[in-house]
Structure formats: structure tokens, C-alpha cells
Amino acid sequence: MFRWVGNRDQLLTDILTSLASSTFRDIQEAVDEVGAERIVRAAELYAEILISSEYYRTFLNRDPERALRLISTKVSPLQRQIVTFFEQILNEEEAADRFTHSLPTPDLAYVIVRVMESFLYSDLIIGEQPDAGKVRSAVSAVLGCLQD
């Protein structure tokens, strides 16, 4: 098996990146907002999907250290894939003159992803329940479109 897929981390990373690709396609189809609200809604929906995904939560809880390393560090291409997804949305909204920002787009996408991860993995990091609503509020704040 290792000849085909490499080590366990490589197999898990391949599975996670494949699942992320289909999740991103689903988000692109589901989100019809524009401008900053499109970015906020994409982040919120991504969080909702991962929080409600039983297989994903099981993976995180079985081996939290490995899961966080594979998901949220430079060790895995998954982090880069997630950041790239948000870079794409930012670029599309900026090109359509529906959103402007002062940070370089890769940096803003990275900040959005890190903010999302803070609330997606809060159970593992600080012992609080993951919360897509907090993702929405925090990403809105980052983008300067605070909502009540």
C-alpha cells in the first residue's frame, strides 16, 4: 500500500484535499452573495460544513495533533489549498469592483483562513465548541463589514 500512496500522512492529506475540492465546488455553487458578503458567507458555509461533518470531527478527535498538523500547517498542501480558494474569491470580487482591500490578496486570504481555523478547531485549541457564527462575525470584522 505504501508504494501506491506513500505514508499515512500522505494518504490522509490526499483524502482531505480531495474532499476539500468538492466542498469548495459546493460552496461556489451555494453562495450567491457578492462583495464582502460573498467572502463572509463562503467562510461561514465552509465552517458549517466542517463542523457538521461527522467523519471530519471523528478524524480531528481521534488524533488531534496529527489532524491539526495536516490541516493547518505548511506540512500539508491542504492549508495552501484553503488559502488559494479564498484568494480566488477575493480576486474575483476585486476584479468585479465589488470589494477592495489594502492587504496583498494572499495575506488577506491567509488571515481569513487563520481566523476561520480559530473557531473551527476551538474545541481542540481552547476547549470551546466550534462555532460557524463566530467565523461569520470574525471574518466580517476582518473585512470591515461588521454586522449586528
UniProtKB/TrEMBL annotation:
**Which InterPro entries does this UniProt record tie to the protein?**
TetR_C_36
Q: Where is the QsdR TetR regulatory C-terminal domain?
A: 35-144
Superkingdom to which the source organism belongs: Bacteria
Q: What is this protein called?
A: Protein
